[in-house]
Design brief:
It contains seven helices and six strands; from the N terminus they run βααβαβαααβαββ. With about 200 residues, it is an alpha/beta fold. It has a single domain, classed as 3-Layer(aba) Sandwich (Rossmann fold), CATH 3.40.50.1240.
Amino acid sequence: MRAGVTLYFIRHGETQWNADARYQGQADVPMNDTGRGQARRNGEALRRFLPDLAQADFLASPLARARETMEIVRDALGLAPGDFKIEDRLMEAHYGSWQGTLASDLPAVDADGLAARMRDPFHWRPKGGESYEDLMTRTRAWLEGIERDCVVVSHGGVNRTLRGHILDLDVATVPLLDMPQDRVLILRRGTSEWI
């Protein structure tokens, strides 16, 4: 990401799996009504950046919850809802064998994996899935090609890794970063602001 570029990052709205604390990863789970309200709120929060924002690139993860969030955000901005690009590198980390599992069930389902994750959450990789390190490599490759302002709708893990890279954070803190679904994160090289 070159100097002077601004990234407006929106996490997709809530799904029932989010509400249940069930690991989603790349499972294509739809948004719920709460999530649709969060998406509208985030679109309305971005209105103050118009008309300049209308000239930005709009990109979303290919997963349905991200695409629908982007459509709602663009509609709230008064822009054509479907006029955005899909970027595969913005897809959430794959949680492998943990996808679909309730967080509360992990001690019984994969106690060893849970213990390994607690020891090193950035480098730990679920069976058949991706680590935060893998995800950061993927998202950093996308970020290096960004030359103009972007509005992005993606996922919590993607936000954490982009934020870790842009703000030059200690990688051990990256998996622990808060990632609300009802706020927009404005990122510039070395700075961040929630709206």
